[in-house]
Amino acid sequence: MNVARMRLIDRWLGTPVCLLLTIWRTIWGRKFPAQDQKPRSILFIKLAEQGSTVLAQRALRSAVERVGREKVYFLLFAENRPILDLLDLIPRQNVIEIRAKGLLRTIIGACSALYRMHRLGIEAVIDLEFFARSSASLSYLSGARWRVGYHAFGGEGSYRGNLMTHRLSFNPYLHTSQTFQIMVDALDHPAEQFPMFDLVPSTSESTGFQLKFDSSETAVVQALLEKELGRSARKIILLNANASDLMPLRRWPSDRYIELANLLLSQYPDCAIGFTGAPSEASAVDELVRKVNSPRCFNTAGKTNLRQLLILYSLSEILVTNDSGPAHFATLTNVEVVVLFGPETPKLFAALSPRTHPLWAGLACSPCINAFNDRNSSCRDNVCMKKISVDQVFEQVAELYEKRQQQFGRGNRLAA
């Protein structure tokens, strides 16, 4: 099911469901957990966007510290599971999936997930979806006594009923990772006090966590690179052109990736350019590689699974990508990441990593996608992305590349 359809369903089906559940809750009374009690199990709900799961690492670790690894659960759409498994923060059997394959199957999957939640006796739910109605409904129907989520007190977000016990006011000045963390912190406070929340959010950066890969896994990816390049190219720069239609406003024009690739190949004879992408993007990425027309330019779209893609990042010098999942996945490796922002702001969504380097034009109309408008925009021409020039990106990549050359030398990365 595509994103646009999910949003329509969430709006037109989710709104009346939230209203009916709110009426039900009002009739039967709004019960709050006792102040001296603490939940013994915690479920996170983040149905979509794998990149946000990476931003939720601190919140997940905090929940594990509170109730133990075996008592932390996560509800998501099945296609967004891979990165959660790679993070390995909770047991795999604690991940509850909903398969979003058409409306009927999704509803059946949601009912199955709710049945499992009740069997597990989930005590606390943290809704990471901000103002989605579907996740608010699932939070209430889970039967959890502690329910933490954002509430539209003054109409500042979408209507999602009055289904939470801990109703937080959304703060658009906090980074997303901070926003997720304070939702866990809210469990330590009485429900009746909200939206007043006398807590100063932590300003610490990323955990610095990096995935480890064994030599046999790395050898598989090195073999793929040698098949594409032989052993002549010394360094790899990756470009994620994001040729899908998932979020077209976030896309940097494809011709600029071609121009950037040619500039880099011309400036650095010892480097190779790899285009990455999902299997569905393979043919579009093939066309980009064809237009670059260099034996040092290759396509990996659809040729790796997620873990192999992260190994590819770890074997590379730099990744250039728009604001998307790969920008966050790459922070789990040692690659430098240049991230192009447009309709959303890096102040809230850039990874808090010293290896992340955001570029943002900062136009008056940007950001136009936010939590308050359900991440929908009336914009049909992403000038904010087009304002980021090839020269700007090239200068940033060149600075990082030359710094890496000095730091790590000029050895062959394929033989590392």
Describe this structure in words.
The protein is an alpha/beta fold and 416 residues long. The protein has two domains: 3-193, Rossmann fold; 215-415, Glycogen Phosphorylase B (Rossmann fold, 3-Layer(aba) Sandwich), CATH 3.40.50. Helices cover 40% and strands 14% of the residues. It has helices at residues 3-12, 14-28, 50-55, 57-67, 82-87, 103-120, 133-141, 176-185, 215-229, 254-267, 282-292, 306-314, 325-329, 346-349, 383-386, 390-408, and strands at 42-45, 72-77, 95-98, 124-127, 146-150, 166-168, 235-240, 271-276, 297-299, 318-322, 336-341, 356-360. The protein has a six-stranded parallel beta sheet with strand order 3-2-1-4-5-6. Strands 9-8-7-10-11-12 form a six-stranded parallel beta sheet, with helices on one face. α2 (14-28) runs parallel beside α7 (133-141). The radius of gyration is 22 Å and the shape is elongated. The model has no long low-confidence stretch (mean pLDDT 91).
